[in-house]
């Protein structure tokens, strides 16, 4: 057990801090432009750090601790860590792993620079938890695929330039072996986007309809029928990122500030032992997840495995965050009901919004119940449910 | 940067697990619980031979000189095997008291005896962590007066007693004026009781900062109880999963039912982060003095909550058998229940965590 960083890493931390001090004014939100900031971060190795230079990245050696230090310092300075989104976080790693040389050269650079924005076409109305049941059809007709079907829960579809999309191309194959991973332009004729307003009042997601959408045959990642394998490589990336314990810690700090500021019958809420007990219970759980995160970081650095510790993050993190936000509403009482453009609103309505949004995340990205199946079957080695005999 | 156990630490846990399994495990615990003996000398002897009784005692005093994190790892194994052995007081809190508040003579007299297991020391400071029934101890003219309850490692030759001013005192178990009243609790693996002190001669530990020593004892004691619960709860979860896999109803293993799987998954999901929390709290005792008191509170309170949940749920997975004495799951259930209340229940400990952070009124 050694929680210190070696001199090399402390020097690296100082370097990141120096960079942030020098360039603070160029960051978005500080008067700078997001795309220029992204370019500057890539040049200095603070974004796209391990992506090879020939594809538009910085070309650094993978170093989990350096990546962590960069994330910590940018968060501490409250400056943008560069562009995110599903193109950068999910498609780029996939292309690096299984994309063709042409695809890597064509797509990775512009995606990293923010010139090409992506959305993810996976879920369908009848393929949610059972994603492999997806039915959007792709039929090869000469030199192009003809796509028909519908996607749902497509965040940023209305902003995206391109989509990476799972399509059933082999209708006669077993369900996991009949899917292909296609890339196409969202301006292709036959695509209709409908915003999906959710319980927060915002349209965080869309429905996307495909009618005779023609996609050039070579815009496939991996081979025909291999789309499930390709997609699974990146779903793993998504789950861990939904419940960052460091974000949880800053939200907890905001909750403590809220309890010091709000009063109930003239006394500060923090001075009420019942509310304080619940705060401490939540703080204890946040601490447990932060320690779990340290263990996962260390395991990754030292090439050890802690599979169960990783499997519980999405379930525990989203559930706890939802509870934390809900408790903040209780702290405010009736004032906690205020939402939208209204007098006496606290925190810009963020407590209600995140309370609802995290219920969405409990469901999205693999529901809590699916997470429990994964923990039981892969973590505890319990047997799968027997398949129903076909009628 | 390394957040994890060293090879030596894993070996320590393995060696301890092998020894405890070799004593007979649950059978040994049953024999102790059902017998008249208040001590299990064979278990204590084995622990002494493995260096567990002297784990944190410096080598110069006959101990092994390891850390409090190592002690937490040992406590975890004791909980896992519901071992009928003293530990939190005699191997951790009492040595800490002597090291932090005892003079050279007191250390030289007692630490080697604690390390060898020749002397078992109990610790009486529930009057500091939450007095009940009007208990409390006062020191006047070198003598102790009052009552101390729920002594940790009560079946002892020597007691370390805290007075109302957080001063610490050594009291021999056979000192004149000392009356011991045995208690029966749900947990038959760790006897406890009450000391009535009627002008009992006592030797103060006054070489160091008494209140600081009391603080260190409480923090370390809480982490040891949390670690004990971690080991007990992990064992209950493992038994529940194994039972579910083997139990057939409706023509199939009940482990295939999602209702059962989800109970097990919820236990695992709650418990797995607890392991890291206990490691961190143990590490904080050794290296992060500013964080240690709050982390010890969180480890104690959170493990109590998760432990209670696992104890109940693992019992439920066993169905009716979980309720019986045949499987013996209740030994772990009760051990977890004991750990929850001793040195402060979760609500009391959370109130203290808030106060330590300056959040209380």
> Can you count the beta strands of chain A?
10
Beta content of chain A = 5-15%
Order of helices and strands of chain B: HHHHHHEHEEEEEEEHEEHHHHH
Calculate Rg of chain B over CA atoms: 20 Å
Largest interchain contact: A-B, 55 and 49 residues
Shape of chain A: globular
The secondary structure category of chain A is alpha+beta
Strand order of the largest sheet of chain A: 1-4-5-8
Question: What does it look like?
Answer:
The complex is a heterodimer of chains A (391) and B (361). Chain A is 46% helix and 14% strand. With 391 residues, chain A is α+β, with helices and mostly antiparallel strands. Chain A is globular. Chain A starts with 6 loop residues before the first helix and ends in a 12-residue tail after the last helix. Chain B has 361 residues and is an alpha+beta fold. In chain B, 55% of the residues lie in helices and 13% in strands. Chain B contains 13 helices and ten strands. A four-stranded mixed β-sheet of chain B has the order 1-4-5-8. Chain B has a four-stranded antiparallel β-sheet with strand order 2-3-7-6. In chain B, strands 9-10 form a two-stranded antiparallel ribbon. The model of chain B has no long low-confidence stretch (mean pLDDT 97). Classes of the chains: A alpha+beta (391), B alpha+beta (361). At the A-B interface, helix 8, helix 9 and helix 12 of A face helix 8, strand 10, helix 9, helix 10 and helix 13 of B.
SSE layout:
The complex is a heterodimer of chains A (391) and B (361).
Chain A lengths: L6 H17 L10 H11 L19 H13 L9 H13 L2 H12 L5 E4 L15 E5 L2 E9 L9 E7 L10 E7 L5 E6 L8 E12 L3 E2 L5 H15 L3 H17 L1 E2 L2 E2 L4 H29 L5 H5 L1 H20 L17 H14 L4 H12 L12
Parallel strand pairs in A: 1-4
Antiparallel strand pairs in A: 2-3, 3-7, 4-5, 5-8, 6-7, 9-10
Helix pairs in contact in A: 1-3, 4-5, 4-6, 7-8, 7-10, 8-10, 10-11
Chain B lengths: L6 H16 L3 H9 L6 H9 L18 H13 L7 H14 L2 H13 L4 E4 L1 H4 L6 E5 L2 E6 L9 E5 L5 E5 L5 E6 L8 E10 L1 E3 L4 H37 L1 E2 L2 E2 L4 H30 L4 H26 L2 H4 L6 H12 L4 H11 L5
Parallel strand pairs in B: 1-4
Antiparallel strand pairs in B: 2-3, 3-7, 4-5, 5-8, 6-7, 9-10
